[in-house]
Amino acid sequence: MLEANDSAGNTFKATSKPVLIGTAVIGATTMIFSIILLLHLKLDLIDARVLIGLILGGAVIYWFSGAAIQAVSTGAYRAVNYIKEHIKLDTKKAASVEDSKTVVKICTQYAQKGMFNIFIVIFSFAIAFAFFGPELFASYLISIAIFGLYQALYMANAGGAWDNAKKVVEVDLNEKGTPLHDASVVGDTVGDPYKDTASVALNPIIKFTTLFGLLAAEMSAKVSEENPNLALGIACTFLAIGLVFVWRSFYAMRIEAKKMD
Predict the structure, then answer these.
(1) So what's the pLDDT on residue 238?
(2) Residue of 10, 151, 220, 252 with fewest CB within 10 Å of its CB?
């Protein structure tokens, strides 16, 4: 009965999470208009700075989605490896409490590492793009809100569909242990990170970027007016820091090429 109700829970989550993201976008829209009015901006779509800002915002959203899923996948891989090496259930009925705690610790560590990399990138890019110019930064914030909304909608619904496809095979078709079930297990490995990790995490990303963006825009406006060279140096420095942690979010979190036994 619980297994059958799990699909209903997946559907509930897939329909409620877009509402959460929608509230973040509404708040982001207010903050973006505050920045536009504060700096007296006139955004023109044929302005190269505006176009670059729109592209950068979309790129950051897709990078974030991949980095969040990478952190989940790597943590899961490390946990499975530990279980295979240390927990031998053929000689005992259940795993020890210490082994169970270690598995939880592994998952927690990789979640924290992944989120640390992501936070540094979001923080650094917000400062860098603000100091590169108000037009680019305002366009970047608009793009973050728009791409983030639709990406979160996609991942929440697609993830729920992936997960429920596996439930159909297990519950409705009653084909656990068959090749069809083996093929549908991807519903967990793809669906869960989509609907339970990356889609939900876009909510604080949108909120933090726009909220901190208001402060960054004010700071950059003052510094750029007094010392343009200093503003450019700050922008390049934080852009370099952000790119380093973008690299870390994938390559420092990657899974080894060796096959699992």
Answers:
(1) 94
(2) 252
Name which of 130, 143, 155 is nearest 221 in CA terms: 130
Q: Two tokens at 11?
A: 């559907």
Residue type, 19: V
Distance of alpha carbon 175 from alpha carbon 192, whole angstroms:
21
pLDDT score recorded for residue 18: 78
What are the residue boundaries of the structural domains of the chain, listed by start?
2-251
Residues of the chain with pLDDT under 70: 3-4, 89-93, 256-261
Q: Is 46 strand, coil or helix?
A: coil
Give me 180's structure tokens.
């069809």
Name the residue among 43, 228, 222 with its Cα closest to residue 132: 228
**Upper half-sphere CA count for residue 84 (Cβ side, 13 Å):** 9
Looking at residue 201, its amino acid is A
User: Residue 260: what pLDDT?
Assistant: 46
**The predicted structure's pLDDT at residue 128:** 93
This prediction has a pTM of: 0.84
Q: What are phi and psi of 83, to 5 degrees?
A: -60, -45
Distances from the Cα of 69 to the Cα of 8, 82, 218, angstroms: 24, 20, 34
Q: Would you state the pLDDT for residue 17?
A: 79
Closest CA to 17 of 159, 120, 133: 159
Helix and strand numbers (H, E) in the chain are: 8, 0
Judge contact between 131 and 223, C-beta under 8 A: yes
Contact 244, 128 (CB under 8 A): no
